[in-house]
Write a sequence for this structure.
């Protein structure tokens, strides 16, 4: 059983998988475990798992939770800083600067919780475990979804999303001396009624209109803002426009990446079975739906409770 009356609460190595906005369910998992008295002593994460896990290790998860729960669809879009490079659509500087101000700068080796972010060294085609150095360098590397975010260059490496090679990074926890290894897989098979219902569509927010005096710089800025507004309008409209090439391309890229992650996650979990596996169905939400934070956090809590209460936890004593 997950919690044995009369015994000391168990220590946990927590593995947080990759999966875009579904990674907000990690917050609910962490909340549930801490409320039940489990002590999270180690975290290994890929992509959104690395982001949520790193913020928790720094002791700022409640601040991040309140912030992300307040975001609307258009707010999410406005954190996208367009990159004029072929390596990716988004630079990521805007969101990383916001998180740094929120969480503060930290060295991984100084965190009170052991932490490993998994990234992919694209030049050497290998998995990289980042367990020392600046926290946000590790997070930025691990969330660099190919073609969406530009790669992160760090320590003479060109690093991309850790989910490319290890979407559920259990192996970094093998060195831990904890009672339980609990893994959260964000790429699980769809289950009937498992995903939260789609919220009612709010009325579209007014688009920002950019004034241009005809100059080259202003004209370029106007086109950038118009591009962002186009994405925002599509994300906030009641019906998707099948003819919208921008959204279609984005969804094609993310769906292709997630399909690859699904296959890799299945292989990894078959090879390295954790003590407890919390499965979040892959159809829970789209990769970009960060505005659904409240329901995703609630889903994470519910799925954690169900997994821990099944009685599948191994008795180490």
């Amino acid at each position: 059983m997950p919690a044995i009356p009369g015994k000391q609460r168990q220590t946990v190595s927590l593995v947080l998988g990759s999966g875009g906005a579904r990674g907000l369910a990690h917050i609910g998992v962490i909340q549930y475990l801490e409320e039940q008295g489990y002590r999270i002593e180690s975290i290994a994460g890929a992509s959104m798992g690395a982001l949520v896990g790193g913020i928790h290790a720094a002791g700022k998860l409640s601040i991040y939770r309140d912030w992300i729960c307040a975001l609307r669809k258009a707010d999410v879009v406005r954190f996208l800083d367009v990159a004029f490079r072929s390596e990716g659509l988004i630079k990521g500087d805007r969101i990383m600067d916001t998180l740094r101000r929120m969480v503060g700068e930290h060295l991984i080796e100084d965190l009170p919780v052991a932490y490993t972010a998994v990234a992919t060294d694209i030049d050497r085609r290998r998995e990289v475990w980042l367990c020392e150095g600046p926290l946000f360098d590790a997070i930025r590397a691990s969330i660099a979804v190919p073609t969406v975010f530009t790669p992160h260059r760090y320590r003479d490496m060109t690093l991309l999303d850790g989910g490319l090679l290890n979407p559920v990074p259990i192996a970094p926890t093998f060195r831990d001396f904890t009672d339980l290894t609990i893994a959260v897989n964000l790429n699980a098979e769809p289950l009937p009624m498992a995903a939260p219902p789609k919220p009612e569509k709010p009325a579209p927010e007014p688009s920002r209109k950019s004034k241009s005096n005809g100059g080259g710089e202003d004209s370029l800025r106007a086109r950038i803002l118009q591009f962002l507004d186009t994405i925002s309008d599509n994300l906030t409209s009641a019906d998707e426009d099948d003819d919208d090439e921008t959204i279609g391309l984005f969804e094609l890229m993310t769906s292709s990446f997630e399909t690859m992650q699904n296959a890799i996650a299945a292989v990894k979990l078959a090879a390295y079975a954790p003590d407890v596996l919390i499965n979040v169905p892959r159809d829970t939400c789209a990769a970009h739906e960060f505005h659904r934070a409240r329901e995703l956090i609630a889903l994470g809590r519910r799925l954690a409770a169900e997994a821990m209460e099944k009685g599948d936890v191994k008795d180490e004593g």
Remarks:
- The chain has a mean pLDDT of 82.
- The chain has nine helices and eleven strands.
- The first helix runs from residue 25 to 35.
- The longest strand covers residues 180-188.
